[in-house]
Amino acid sequence: MDTKKLAQQLLAQAKEQGIDLVGPGGLLGQLTKTVLETALEAEMTEHVGYEKHDPAGRGTGNSRNGTRSKTVVTEIGPVEIDVPRDTSSSFEPKIVKKRQRRLSGVDEIVLSLTAKGLTTGEISAHFAEIYGTSVSKDTISTITEKVVAEMVDWCNRPLDRVYPVLFIDAIHVKIRDGQVANRPIYVVIGVTTAGERDILGLWAGDGGEGAKFWLQVLTELKNRGVADVCIAICDGLKGLPEAINTVWAQTIVQTCVIHLLRNSFRYAGRQHWAEMSRDLKPVYTAATEAAARERFGEFTAKWGGRYPAIVKLWNNAWPEFVPFLDYDVEIRRIICSTNAIESLNTRYRRAIRARGHFPSEQSALKCLYLVTRSLDPTGQGRARWAMRWKPALNAFAITFEGRIHPTGN
To answer: InterPro entries, alphabetically (predicted)?
Structure first.
């Protein structure tokens, strides 16, 4: 009988007998109990060397010795199982280990809910409401603490030798350290020569970071294998441009155009955002720096009287804004793309808003790492997003001749 027919038969029998699908005594609970007990019996047979009730086991020095009951928390709720014992007490089950009170799938549910920003109390209440089982806040904390070592490994993993583009951005979170205060956590995303986006790491700051802090972060990336970066895109973080060129002398530092636009809108009334966006587009899509300056002159004539702070913002950022105007349109598309960082930031912000604030810096980093981890189907936070890359790769190979060596298909 195939799996589908067996499932249909079991469902029909459960319906006839008035058995629920889930919950205490439900069909899925009974099936889980049967599967686990069958696996445990198979492990015991392998351990003692003979089948249950087989005369061959007589006089072997070790034999079955009944069972003991224990309740394990599963993805469908608590399930009571009978674990076989042996006379020598040497049986070490693997499917449900000694003193194990929950299946690994429960841990993954806890980590997934933590990545969505739920607190330990909310996760505990979720298990009680949905699965009808008790998972204490201490247990939930213990589960999430297990990822700290994994996070350390992730933050120290080897990186690619060359990244054509590096994005450096900050997410602000509320951390309760004596009193609740906004703290930045910096995320670095690299675009690889295979056209993939790779999250390189997370670093906590206190808002007063300077060249020394950035030199430490970038040196760490270099020590992990990053020998060259063609273009680094950031948002006017103090001391960062100097640190970038200290670590990678040939790197072009580019102000993030998206952040420049966003910062401009902070000084303007919402009713002017759409019109102002249309007037700024000719500036950052201009063919040359001279054309961009001319278009910005037109913008200044129209908006400078009403919003002088926006004009000052662009003039101050101009030296780091104009480098990308020298490049091919395909390179500009990569640099100006909001997808590289905004899709990730959206996930981060969703978890942060759900949580409100964090009790410690490590708690905040752990939550953001779990968000990062959840993007990867393998659960290791190392998956990369593919992007439209071939045209840009050709432009990069010509512009940065000798520095770009394509990989992948």
So the answer is: Transposase_mutator
Residue 383's alpha-carbon distances to 107, 147, 372, in angstroms, are 21, 17, 9
Of residues 376 and 392, more confidence is placed in 392
| Domains of the chain by residue range | 19-147, 160-399
Residue 379 neighbours by CB distance under 10 Å: 14
pLDDT of 75 > 50? The answer is yes
CB distance 393 to 193 below 8 Å: yes
| SS3 label, residue 22 | coil
Alpha-carbon gap, residue 47 to 86, rounded angstroms = 9
- Tell me the angle at which helices 104-115 and 361-374 cross, rounded to the nearest 10 degrees: 110
Q: CA 246 to CA 242: how far, in whole Å?
A: 6
Confidence at 291, pLDDT banded by 50, 70, 90? very high
Helix (H) or strand (E) holding 53: none
Residue 296 to residue 288: CA distance in whole angstroms = 12
Residues near 104 by Cβ (< 8 Å), separated by ≥ 6?
Answer: none
Strands 162-177, 228-234: pairing kind: parallel
Task: Name 386's bridge partners.
Answer: 196
Q: What does the radius of gyration of the chain's CA atoms come to, in whole angstroms?
A: 29
3-state secondary structure of 81: strand
pLDDT of 324-339, one tens digit each? Answer: 788 887 788 777 755 5
Residue 330: other Cβ atoms inside 10 A? 18
User: What is the Cα 180 distance to its own chain's centre?
Assistant: 24
Contact status, residue 76 vs residue 127, Cβ threshold 8 Å:
no
Residue type, 401: E
What span, in angstroms and rounded, lies between the C-alpha atoms of 309 and 297? 15
3-state secondary structure at position 263: helix
pLDDT at site 147 = 72
